[in-house]
Hints:
CATH architecture of the largest domain: 3-layer Sandwich
Helix content: 25-40%
CATH topology of the largest domain: Rieske Iron-sulfur Protein
Strand order of the largest sheet: 3-4-5-6-11
Largest sheet: 5 strands, antiparallel
Radius of gyration: 35 Å
Distance between the termini: 97 Å
CATH class of the largest domain: Mainly Beta
Number of helices: 8
Shape: elongated
Number of strands: 13
CATH superfamily of the largest domain: Rieske [2Fe-2S] iron-sulphur domain
Number of domains: 2
Amino acid sequence: MSKELEPLADPGLPEHVHRKADIDPIAAKRAERQVAVLFSLSSVGTLLFIYSFFFIKDDVFIFVPIMGNTNAHQLGIGMGMALSLLFIGFGAVHWAKTLMPDQEVIAYRHELKSAPEDRSEFVKTAKEGAEQAGLGRRPLIKRSLAAAVGLAGLPAVILLRDLGPLPGNSLNETNWKTGTKLVTDPGDRPIKASDLEVGGVAQVMPALLAGQKRTLEDIAKDAVLLIRLRPSEFQLDAERLSWTHEGIIAFSKICSHMGCAVALYEQTTKHLLCPCHQSTFDVTRAAKVIFGPSARPLPQLAITVDADGYLIAKQPFTEAVGPSFWERKS
């Protein structure tokens, strides 16, 4: 018995089996309708997304088996987008498996850079492929695909609405008004000058009106630090000095670099430090930047006292608080 290995014969390619849609016009028409239905279902999913986004309130809940009570707004948006993309995929796959060309193709290796004649041949092949795909002969698929793909792009555009309305002048304004009372945070307790000792620091917010609720956006803009020094320690011009009261000076707590909370006060050096990027502000010189990436001092809030001795704002901030933004004028 010979121990030599016999070379394997080339098995070749199996005989091509034609699909039913290739030989039966009725089957081809049925497959075309199936693809169109799948693309139409994708369009329905997109319309469900749009309807849920605009017309279902975000506080509506419905009971769904297994899932329990579910937010109808979020469920509609999620299901709509999922169905939109899912049925486009199903339709494309079914189209390829039943109607697109089904011939075996041999691709030979060649140099990475194509010769000009090869490029021309590629363009010719692409055109022939488009013709073979049958878009021109299958208007039902063409129209349903165009509708599905066209609608599928709308959710991405509509979701831009969730970026919110344009800020207008809201970034330049806070809730500090002339006569607004300073209250402790936390606690919402009015504060008097006598409550703060020399070297002491307190975080305050503007007092709320009756029935008003404080939002996170308010906290992000309205937080103010009160710091009490000896009046002789200030190095301020006459106007800035008039914004203080008995050695108490008020600055926005929001860093003018990236909007972090300037929460560290060094009593010996009279410096405020932002813990995020180490911007350092000199309290004695109207929060002038002495170190770090911040480009502007912290805005100073002018304060005084009312008839009962409680600290109040003498006027709103004279500049926008926080970091830079496009519309900022200073």
